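Look over both lines before class:
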Amino acid sequence: MYVAPRGTIDILPEDQPYWEFLRAQIREVTALFGYQRIDVPVFEETSLYVRGVGEGTDIVDKEMYSFLDKGGRDITLRPEFTAGIVRAYIEHGMKTWPQPVKLYTVGPIFRYERVQAGRYRQHTQFDIECIGEQDPAVDLEVMSLAWELFSRLSFTGLAFQLNSTGCPKCRPAYVALLVDYYQDKRDLICTDCTRRLERNPLRLLDCKNEQCQPVIAGAPHIMDYLCPDCATHFSRLRTYLDALHRPYTINHRLVRGLDYYTKTVFEVWAEGIGAQNAVCGGGRYDGLAEELGGDPTPGIGFGSGMERLVLTMKQQGIQVPGLPQPQVAVIYLGEEPKKKALELLIGLREAGIAATLAFGDRSFKAQFRHADRENARYALVIGHDELRAGRVALQDMRSDAPRELIELPEAVETVRQRLNGQRNQ
């Protein structure tokens, strides 16, 4: 028997109300902040991610789904959104638009990583990018958009985790200092960190292996080695957060997993999802456009896994509206009445009334059970007697009142008026 590949999930109808509610909140919040939707390909040239995300990162070295297509091109399924969106910004001349360009998207990303609760090898990501402005007030806006979304989702225990990763001016000196600190501790760290020490030292601070924690605890903090520009940027951002009374913690270990980050990096944490309590993460990437062949262009954004958000909603007991249900069930008895029942079904739907019919020539009682399960408000019942009389029986499924006979041509309009009357009560 086939099952879904490891690291993927089926989103069943019972979970769709959470997803619909989440998508609706995303649409409302992005519109409120003035972000426009963009959709980029689900695959790109592999070199886009190698250059953008960076060699030596776990994503590029271990997690990308890469392959040669039938034309011999090296292609990778999208492991993150930012590189592709910045590529689109450059390709379509968005630098001539009013800056900053504020974009969002939702779609699948693919990473071959260890499967955890709310984290899958194919998962759906909500992504925000604000490109073309370096003002730390833009950092605040992007972080505020995340805060607004999670507040609307009624998440509890919200707080920012915040750090600065410096810039190409100040980071190299800090990285050299970090490497020097680790040199006599090689025997104390895991094999992954031994590799990171050679290829991507900043990622040493993000290791979750228990063996490495004492070494990380004693590592120097990049905050102490920022250049004046980075220090001022970070200080101004903190001033803005303080003015808005947004809770945050300086997390010296927060470096994120991609090489393009500069200056601000942040996560939003919430209660209810165990040890992995980040519901989004992102930061500034001021050198990425230049790395991908464009002009120097600052940018900042974040990504949030929607499966993780749905899991958080469930664990925090957040109630969401159910999906729309049929308002009317059409019930018939006999082949000729069935033809008229099908006409009624189509007529109701053409009038904008959600309607259902139990297929398969079920018994009268079984059709009513189906209507109950569908939670229909009314039933239209037609048999041979009703058909000969040119009428249909209208039954209120939530009342003990007897069925009411109405003329067939008036059935759709009568139901519409009754439903409107229910809405206005």
Observations:
- DSSP finds 15 helices and 16 strands in the chain.
- The mean pLDDT is 93.
